[in-house]
Amino acid sequence: MIGNIDRISYLIFGDLSKKRFSEYHKLEEQLLKSRICVPFDIYISRAYLISILSLLPLGILSYFLFSTIPGSPPFPYNLLIISLSSVIFSFALFKLIILYPEITANLRGRQIDIILPHAVALMHALSRGSNDILVSFEIISNNRKLFGEVSREVEGTLIEAKLLNNNIKTALKNSAAQTPSESFKNFLEGLSTILSSGGDVSAFFLNKSEQFRIKAINENKAYMETLGLFSEVYVTGFAVGPLFIIVLLVVLGLMGSMDYFLLYLMVYIFIPVGAFIFIILISSLSKGLNTGSIELESRTTVEEKHLRIQQGRFRMKINDIIQNPFKKLVEVPERVMFFSIPISIIFFIISTYDFFNIGFFEAINEIDDYIIFSVFIAIIPYSIFVEMHFRKIIQINENFPEFLNRLVSLHDSGLTIGTSLKKVGSTNLGILNNEINKMNIDLELRGNLTETFRNFGNRIKTMAVQRVVVLFENAVKMTGNIKDTLIITAQDAQISRNMDEDRIQSTRMHIYVLYIAFFVFLYVSWSIVTGFLPQMPDLPPEGVPDLGAGNIAFSGVDKALFIMLFFHASVIEGFFSGLMAGQIANQDARLGLKHSIVMTAIAYLLFRSIT
Questions:
Q1: CB-CB contact of 146 with 74 (8 Å)
Q2: Is residue 146 within 8 Å of residue 294, measured between CB atoms?
Q3: Given phi > 0 = left and psi -120 to 50 = alpha, else beta, which region is 288?
Q4: For residue 462, what are the β-bridge partners?
Q5: How many CB atoms lie within 10 A of CB 571?
Q6: pLDDT digits (tens, 9 = 90+) for 391-405
Q7: Which has the closest alpha carbon to 191: 144, 149, 145, 153?
Q8: Would the pLDDT of 73 be above 90?
Q9: Closest CA to 224 of 599, 514, 513, 501
Q10: Mind spelling out the 3-state secondary structure of 243-299?
Q11: Helical packing angle, 482-527 and 463-479, nearest 10°
Q12: What pLDDT does 320 receive?
C-alpha cells in the first residue's frame, strides 16, 4: 500500500521535491537519524500527496463542525470559511509530516541517552579482557530488548565495519554523524580518537561511564519536569477543559436549537482520544526505563534438546501450575483476561438481552450500568495480578543492588564466590532470599557461575536484572575477573535504583493533582445535575419567548439526556484519568487501572445516588 502511494506521489511531485532540496536539506539528515528508510524526495512527494488528499475529508469535517454552531454564517460565507479552514488544516498536516522525522529523531536520541550508561558499563566490563570494540557492539546488538535504540546504533557501526569493509575508526565516525544523540556522538568520536592514538580504552570507558551516570541523573530530573508539564497540560486541556466546554455547550443547547453533535464528540471522542495521545507521548518518552519484565531468548544446550529432558521439563511446568496456579498469572497478568473477558461478555449479553429490541439511545441509557459492570468484571482481576506482578518487580529491584553489594564485600574479604553466595543467602533480602537459595543449589549442581546467573535472570525476568546478567555473563567469559565485574554490575544496578526512587517520589504529587482535577469535574457535574437542571422547566421543543429572564428564549430541555451525558463524561474522565496516573507515576498505564476502577466507581455511585 505504502509502495503504491510512493510511486504515485513521486510520479506527480518528484520533480518539485528535487527542486526544493535546498529548502528541506535538513530533512535528509533527520530521516537518517530517525531511521526512516525513505529517500528524501520520495518522502516530500508523499507529504504533498497526503496533504492534498486530506482536503476533502477535512472539508467534510469542517462542514459538520460549523453546521452545529448556533448562529453560523449563511451559505456563501460558511462555504468560504470551510474552504479556508480545510486548506489551513491540510497545510498544518503537511508541516506535521515534514516535522515527523525530527520529532522521531529527538525521541530516539532521548531513548539512547537513557540506555547509554548501561551500554557503556557493559563495554567497560568487557574492555578489561579485550580491546576489540566490535565484540562489545555485537553483544549489545544481539540484546535489543535490553539496550533498545543503542542496539540499533551500534548495529549501524557493525554494518559499516563488517559488510562495507570500513576500518573501525571510519565506521565510528560515520555512525557518529548519523546518530540523533549528542552524547552518543561525542562518545563515538572520542572512542575513535582513543583507538587512533593508542590510548587506554578501559580508562576511557570508565571515565565515560561515570560521566554518563551523572548525566543520566540530570536527564532523570529533566524527565520528571517534563512529566510535570504533561500532567499540567492534561489536567488543563483534557480534564478541566472538557468540563468547561461541556457546560458551555449545555447552556447553548438550552438557549437555542443546537445540534448535540459537538457534545457527543466532546464526551465520547475528545476525552478518551486525548488521554490515549498523552499516554502514547509519555510512553515514548519513558521507553528504556527499568519498568516491567522482559524475557530473553533462552539458549538450549544439546542435552536439553533431548526428548526425555523436554518431557521432564513439561511435567515440571504442569506440576508448578498445579501447586501454585496463580504464579503463572502473576508472571504474565494478561493470561487472566482469557477468563475475565469471556465472563464479562457472557454477563453483558445475559443482562442486556431484554434491551436489544428498543431504540439505540434508549438502550444506551438502560445498559450503561451493565457496560460498567462488565468492564469491572474484565479488568478488576487483571488489575489485581498487574499489581502483584509489578510489586514483585519493585521488591526485586529494591533489593538487587544490595544483593550485589553484599556479594562484592564478601568476595572482596577473601571468600570464594560460592561461599559468598551462601553467606548472602542467609541475610534478609526479602523476596530475593528464595532466588538466592536456588542460585546456591544451581551452583552446587552445575559448578558454573555464569550459568547460575543466567538461570537467575531467566527466573526473575526484570529489565535491571537481565542487564546485569548479560553484563556479568559476557564480562566473566572474556575477562575471568569476577570481582571487578561484580563491582561494575553493582554500580550499574545501584544507579538505576536511585533514579527509580527519585521518579517515584517526584511523580506522587501528579497523582494527587489528577485526583483533584477529577473531583472538581465530578463536583461541577453533580452541581449542574442536582442544582441547575431541576430548576429548568420541561418546555416544548420550540421554546418560549420569555420566562422572566429578559429576552432569552429557552429551547426544550431533555433532562434525561443531559444527566446521561454528564454521567458518561464523569465515568469516562475517571477511567482515563486513572490510566494517565499510572503512566505518569509508574511509566505503565496498566498500573493506573486501580485508579481507574476507584474513580469510575466513585462517579457511578455518586450519579446513581442522585438519579
A1: no
A2: yes
A3: left
A4: 293
A5: 22
A6: 888 888 888 888 888
A7: 153
A8: no
A9: 501
A10: HHHHHHHHHHHHHCCCCCHHHHHHHHHHHHHHHHHHHHHHHHHHCCCCCCECCCCCC
A11: 170
A12: 64
| pLDDT tens per residue across span 249-275 | 777 666 655 557 778 888 888 889 988
Q: What is the C-alpha R_g of the chain?
A: 30
Residue 541 has pLDDT above 80, yes or no: no
Q: Given its phi and psi angles, is residue 340 left (phi above 0), alpha (psi -120 to 50 degrees) or beta?
A: alpha
Which DSSP helix (H) or strand (E) runs through 246? helix 241-255
Amino acid at 509: M
Numbers of helices and strands, H then E, in the chain: 24, 0
pTM of the model: 0.80
Angle between helices 75-127 and 55-67 (to 10 degrees): 120
Angle of helix 360-412 relative to helix 337-352, nearest 10 degrees, comes to 160
pLDDT at 67: 61
CB distance 582 to 592 below 8 Å: yes
Cell of 590: 496498566
CA distance 443 to 451: 8
Measured CA to CA, the distance from residue 50 to residue 28 in angstroms comes to: 19
What is the residue whose three cell numbers read 547509554? 116
The model's pLDDT over 360-390, given as tens digits with 9 standing for 90+, comes to 666 677 788 899 999 999 999 999 999 998 8
Closest-CA residue to 140 (of 125, 122, 157) = 122
Q: Mean per-residue pLDDT for 203-231?
A: 83
* Side chain identity, residue 253: G
172 by DSSP, 3-state: which? helix
C-alpha cell at 222: 529533566
C-alpha cell at position 53: 488528499
Phi and psi at residue 358, to the nearest 5°: -95, 175
In our burial notation (b when 16+ CB lie closer than 10 A, e otherwise), range 299-325 reads: eeeeeeeeeeeeeeeeeeeeeeeeeee
Is the separation of the CB atoms in 589 and 582 below 8 Å?
Answer: yes
Residue 203: strand, helix, or coil:
helix
Q: What is the pLDDT of residue 342?
A: 94
Q: Which residue has the cell 493506573?
A: 592
C-beta separation of 601 from 572 below 8 A: no
**pLDDT tens per residue, range 496-540:** 888 888 888 888 888 888 999 999 999 988 888 888 777 766 645
Beta bridge partners of 553: none
